[in-house]
Design a protein that fits this description.
The chain has 220 residues and is α+β, with helices and mostly antiparallel strands. It has 5 helices and 10 strands, in the order ααββαββαβαβββββ. The strands form 2 sheets. Strands 4, 5, 6, 7, 8, 9 and 10 form a 7-stranded antiparallel beta sheet that branches. A 3-stranded antiparallel beta sheet has the order 1-2-3, with helices on one face.
Length: 220
């Protein structure tokens, strides 16, 4: 048996006489293959890539720290440089709030000294032809503390302080005036007008102040 016979995989047939088969015939061809589509493999690959990307995005999101906000605190927070603590003003300002006016980002950026008492409100909108309303409050604190409270708090909540000085229509009073862009596309101004302190029967200082909130006219 020759080496070629073994590789061909056929049994020995002697010396290749005329009555036998030729041992050197080529091996049979492999069966024909049908058409093979790559689509299933591509689908599986696409799903795998999508899963990897999804887990990558979730990993980045989960690793990010908390987002800093400028809304009023839900828990009273000590205001630097004063003896006062800040609380959200939204609930107290309900009498001068209307549907979507002022916008939420304006109301949420306003605070009151903890313990402030409301004494009513006034609506100047008709005369101004744009939103212009105010509320009156009082709190046991000095005039200086209330002025510093609004100077610090308004700046911390994203308001641009425009002026801190003598009030225009209140003798001896001080006004803190600030501006902020609203989510409604308008600029809004708030004026904290602080009256001189008075002394109560207990000897403590009581200070009245007004928060006036108005929409800035497009004539400015």
């Amino acid at each position: 048996m020759t080496t070629e016979d073994v590789r061909a995989g056929s049994p020995p047939t002697g010396n290749g006489s005329s009555g036998g088969h030729d041992d050197r015939l080529p091996p049979p061809l492999p069966p024909a293959r049908g058409n093979t589509s790559l689509r299933p493999a591509m689908v599986v690959l696409g799903v795998a890539v999508a899963i990897v990307v999804l887990f990558g995005v979730l990993s980045v999101v989960s690793s990010q720290g908390p987002t800093t906000t400028t809304t009023a605190p839900s828990v009273p927070a000590r205001v630097h440089g004063t003896s006062l603590r800040a609380v959200a003003a939204a609930r107290a300002l309900k009498p001068i709030e209307h549907p979507e006016t002022p916008p939420a980002n304006i109301v949420d950026a306003l605070t009151l000294p903890q313990g402030a008492v409301s004494h009513g409100y006034a609506d100047n909108t008709t005369a101004a032809n744009q939103y212009d309303e105010q509320m009156r409050f009082s709190v046991e604190a000095t005039e200086a503390d209330v002025v510093d409270f609004y100077r610090v708090e308004l700046a911390a909540k994203g308001w641009k302080i425009e002026d801190v000085g003598p009030a225009t229509n209140l003798a001896g009073g001080t006004e803190v005036l600030a501006e902020k862009g609203g989510d409604d596309g308008w600029y809004w101004e708030v004026g904290a007008v602080v009256s001189p302190s008075t002394f109560g029967a207990s000897g403590s200082n009581t200070t009245a102040f007004t928060l006036r909130l108005f929409q800035v006219s497009d004539d400015f």
